[in-house]
Amino acid sequence: MEIRNTVATSPPAVRAQAAPRRVGLLAAFENFQIFKVWREGLSDHDWIEGKNLIVDYRYFGDDSERAPALAAELVTLKPDLLFATNPQAAVALKSATANLPIVFVSVADPVGLGLVQSLSRPGGNITGLTELVPGDWIAKRIQVLKELVPSASKIALLINPHNPQHKLRLTDEVPRAAEAVGVTLLIVEATTPEELDMAFASAVAQHADAIVIFGDPVTAQNAPRVVALAAKHHLPASYLFRQFANGGLIVYGPDLADVFRRAGGYIDKILKGTKPADLPVEQPTKFELVFNMTTAKTLGLTVPTSLLVRADKVIE
């Protein structure tokens, strides 16, 4: 188990005399770059870890079944607020307490998961920022991939069956996406880094023409490995987060750094007394479409002008 506690204060004199506030953070892994942005978001509101803020970190790694026990452990520390960085963490914290305020990020459909009653009126002790705008996001990702690979008739979706958000979308969005785009969608699964190899081998065995990587801690933590597997099997791949742009063909998704930074504002409001039920769940406001032209050339693909003009960044 990885445990790290840090204590802290902020410039305002009124806080300098007060006891530090406590936040319990539950995640799969420590993401140094994203957590740095999150801390910057907090410092924008004068909450400085190591001065007027104590942060208790708990990580469940590849084993999401550990999340409920770690959530319960954080609750026993009696924090002022709990912070969840993915769907597994959010579900675990919501189940662990109905009283302590919770802020989540990177949850695509909090209503579908039963975390909140609605985006505008969460109605409980939990609120936060979604990973995506609810709707046909999977279809949009597949459509972009299909524009780049027009001949693709079978597209694999790499999911983690232990991710509650993925299970929800398999029964909801995926069937609609297959019909809307007119392709056969194949499901391949990975719950651990070791299973990533088997998932790609399964996609190839089923004659997939391309692959869409769902957002998940397992794939995010192993981004170089995932990108390398796509290259090894000569599979055009679409990813959700910017970190995959280093070698990844397409990135199409939210600006995750912006979401984590904005979470600092929610935490600030709750630490100052606002109830989570009074804070509507916010959606991403910045999205990125990135193409890696070197990878496209390696795969023998030409990125059409219709996609290039929509791109936020083109990596040569």
From TrEMBL:
Coiled-coil parts of chain: none
Record Gene3D superfamilies: 3.40.50.2300
InterPro entries found in the cross-reference section: ABC_transpt-TYRBP-like, Peripla_BP_I
Protein name (Swiss-Prot/TrEMBL): ABC transporter substrate-binding protein
